[in-house]
Amino acid sequence: MILTVRDLEVTFRVGPWFYRRPIVAVSRVSFSLRAGEIYAIVGESGSGKTTLAHAINGLQKTSGGEVRFLNKKVDLVRTHTIKSLRRHMSMIFQDPVGSLSPRMRVGDLIAEPFIIHKIKRDLKEEVHRLLSLVGLSGDFADRYPHQLSGGQARRVGVARAIALDPQLVIADEPTAGLDVSVQGEVLNLLNDLRERLGLTMIFISHNLHVVHHIADRMAVMYLGRIVETGRTEEIFRAPAHPYTATLLSATPNPDPDKVRKRISLNSEVPSLLNRPKGCEFHPRCPWVQKRCSRETPYHSNQGQISVACHTPLQPGTQPPSA
Amino acid sequence: MNVLEIQNLNVTFATEGSTLRALKNVSIDIPKRCIVGVVGESGCGKSTLINSILRLLPENGKIDAGTIKFEGHDLTKFDLSQMKTVRGSRISTVFQDPMSALNPVLSIADQMLHIQYRSKLRRKEKQEKSIEMLRRVRIPDPESALKRYPHEFSGGMKQRISIAMAMMMEPALLIADEPTTALDATLEVAIIDLLKELQSQIECSILFISHHLGLIAELCDQVIVMYAGEVLERGTAHQIFHDPWHPYSARLLECDPANQTSRTRQLPTIPGEIPDLKAIHKGCIFRSRCQYCEDICTTVPEEFGINGHFVRCHRKSQ
Fold first, then answer.
1. Chain B: residue whose CA lies nearest to A189
2. Which helix (H) or strand (E) holds B292?
3. Among partner residues B185, B269, B273, which is closest to A206 by beta-carbon distance?
4. Nearest-CA residue of chain B relative to A191?
5. Does A125 touch chain B (CB under 8 A)?
6. Which residues of A249-275 are buried (b: 16+ CB within 10 A; e: fewer)?
7. Which of A47, A132, B141, B169 is most deeply packed, by most CB within 10 A?
8. Average pLDDT over chain B, rounded to whole?
9. Residue A91's CATH number
10. CATH architecture assignment, domain B2-90+169-317
């Protein structure tokens, strides 16, 4: 196992000092990653995907549980250990252009990891090697981020992330904000790099279709909790959690003639300040039962999928008519 | 009968040392009670198109040629005060980001009453109308919602409120500029359903701009495909999605990950980049990225069409 996350919890405190309230952004998240695997984390905004990524990378203080990477604990307190850990664990941040310093040239941006970790190499050669690895020509080294298109900036971000041959890459929404034709390019690049360099990757996305093509295993998050996890094909074939089923049915199909069977939700995402009791999905769940509002469901296995639901869906279940 | 007829619209931006041709010979018809979708990637001129209709172009932007006929009047000939009477009452807009479309320091009531400033109704009646509108976009407890401020609502709710405000004056044309981009998938479809419902009640037309092919397929009657400031293809949703004529449209549809039902490691892409709009182009604008490019493509393709399906491509017109 390259990475083991156990009962991870991240709490934020919000509100003025006389009325501080905790909100639990990530709650009891556990999973582990084998080498060479792509693990996707899917969820809507506010589900805690990015906070989870930051907690794994040590960018975010945790309030419970632990993250073990290469058999060492990721610990924010000891800055020198976290720096050496980050040498093997890199991030691709959400905004392709915004995550590059506007005042540095592409060449300097790509060489930066070597300088930070004091690795002596022929930087010029490394920059060219990395640029060609992500499919950019050598003269990009002299450009500034604002001279790049979204797709090119994203490639530079990928080059930075793989510069030091990391054991793990955390990609936070690497295709968000890109056009469909460019989206495919970035996914192909990541797939290609995974084959050539044996990358292990955590792939965060809100787009289920994208995840389908890249991830070996996936986890679906809702209000900071993993509600379902398993092999990607299995989940796409027969989702066990009602929320996953809803997400899958909500993605519009580019065919105007298709008759759609859609699961509609009753209300909006509840606030994290006001977490529903019992199963957190119960106020919106079409299959809700009495016990769902009282008892919190724990993860149990259904086939190859691990699901946190009292009454997991059986393959082919139709939504109850309202 | 068309609500909006745009003919040969050309828009340029003056930039340092050169001019950028943002729209080139764009012709679009929006029939009454019809939802027309515009698809295209970034830089294709979707936003410039809207801004030209609403006369919201930045100072360096200019309409060089062409007419924008709305309800029989040419909007390009209108002066600013005439434009103001059209905006918000006959044409209204729902913008991409609901957070910035609403004024954060005014209550919902203030904003909703304000927008009815042309109406002769009494304050009480305006208030009732606002409540009725909020109810129609399914805001729970609309009376108390009026007293609240934008930050107290979630993103989906805010977008519903801005739709309510846009539909309040019962416009003839609603322009929706990527109204769901900032929202989650489960909310996205809810907004689409809502737009459809209101459209049939109010009997307006909608110009729906999006890069999301699935949403366009679901909502729109007619589809326009734009690329680098030109309309490459237009037709009914069925025609475009089932039998795309232009290589770009076909490629774009292929690229959508949602169209790949089986798992693939190698997703289709469109190699190359959007041409620099500051340079002068000869012939077909998609030529440099087209897999079927031939000698004839260096000449400008004429628009060819049958049964309301139009395309600018030599392959079809030959």
1. B266
2. none
3. B185
4. B265
5. no
6. bbbbbbbbeeeeeebebeebbbebeee
7. A47
8. 89
9. 3.40.50.300
10. 3-Layer(aba) Sandwich (3.40)
